[in-house]
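## retry 2 of 3
previous attempt timed out at serialization; input unchanged, resubmitting
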Amino acid sequence: MAAAGKTLPPRKRPIAKPAITPKLYNLRRKALASHDEWAMNVLHRIGEALNAPGGAESTNTRPGPQGQVLKWPEIYKPVPTPLTSPLPLRSAKLVTQAVLLLLLSLEKYDARSRTFLLILASSLRVPVDVVIELESETAKTLIAVSKQMSADAESKKRSDEGRVSRRWKVGLASVAGAAVIGVTGGLAAPLVAAGIGGLLSGVGLGATAFAGYLGAVAGSGAIMGALFGAYGGKMTGEMVERYAAEVKDFAFVPLRKSDPCLRVTIGITGWLTDPNEVILPWKALNENSEVYALRWEMGALIDLGSSLHEVLKSYAWSYVKLEIIKRTVLASLWAAIWPVALLRAARVIDNPFSIAKHRSEKAGQVLADAIINKAQGERPVTLVGFSLGARVIYYCLQSLAERGAYGLVENVVLMGAPVPSSGDTWTCARTVVAGRIVNVYSEKDYILGFLYRTSSVQFGIAGLQPVKVPGIENLDVSNRVEGHLRYRHVVGVILKEIFGHDVDVGEVSREEEVLKALELKDEQIERERKEREKEGGRSRDVDGEIDSALERAERGLEERKIRREEEEVRRKRREARREERRRRE
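## retry succeeded, writing output
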């Protein structure tokens, strides 16, 4: 008991931890079980290599890529190890390279495997660009090996038809300039290595060590084909055609013709004013990964982008922006107080946004199907999108989590995402992404706030504010993005800050020049607005210009609708004629 006249300080109550829902509990359990299975496979394979009989083969110790030390993200924080003090960089690179081959010997390059490799490299003080160079050279070597195996098999078939091994053919008619590649499986790894040893000098290890670490992969063209998604054919071939029946225009469009890589990046655009814009925002991504742009619901995205562009490009919208910046976008959203001019524009932008927003959910589910069915092969995927493209990714991750599809997605970047900033979906998404999830937002994106005003704003908007969920990174680009349409022009600048090593510096420089021109145009519009105010023509100019812009947007919507209907009629006629010819035959 307390002494007389003395009072005890109030006892602090323990802070209650938020209760985890049964859904999240089951999800966490499945994710941990999948991770444990992957970890055991990796440890078992490394143990096999360490305990293999025989001495180590002498390796090619050419200098190789030295690289520059780039800042590692927090997720790849180095693990303390006594190896770093006595281990020179050359040896550290060979260790990293050997582990890469061991990971590939599991017959897939799991997204978790790549994250593990980057953590290992960080711990051994191997620069990130050296890891990327090792991946690139290894991919080129594997492709060279598979082609050599194909040539050897053809020669063997001609000399002795009775001793030919099974052949595996992959049709690449859907890829421009690609040929049918015949690859023979079943060849012993040492025989393969002995036959093409000269091709392996680029990766730093000797031929026998290379083949030994790769295991069965070194002797099987079928496994190599599966690893690379049949050398890109699955991303653009018949497999993807069936998805177009569920989401109109669904297709993966390759950005450039390049050698297959050990990683795949998919960029997803959120609105369009021209069909070519499916590809243009993603040209800033370099050849460190195999880059594709996702084409989806072209009609809906062009309706949305064209309507927004038509309405927002007029001088009158400088007055609308002036009204909004008097308060924050979120304040306008919560108070439901918007400039009258912006509310008048709702009649031409609300419906296109609502249609595209709804279809983005289906597109996300179909994208998840494609990833689960290994359109990308057995390689990790990075998903990058802005506006409704980010929403596609959001629903893709949700579908992957619900189906327990772990180890497929490596990194995710969502820019200006019209999705909730809170809720369990972000936690679910974190379980299926092995590397980084970055939410890019702008507190000044008044167009996003206005478009999203009829949705569940009580759960927040990820494109306007940070996502406060463990494991989610947030990047504020308010100084770069004041309107939703600006994201199209800052993709490279943003990705340079997030993935500096995967970005084409030249393309980013050109993008920055375009940005400067846009900023100068904004300054000119602001000067003209002030001059008009001095002349007393503000109300007349604003009302007249907004009405004209709305009329042009409405005409554009109607004209595009008529063209699509006419095209649909022509398509049905073509199908009817083909069906008639089939019946006659």
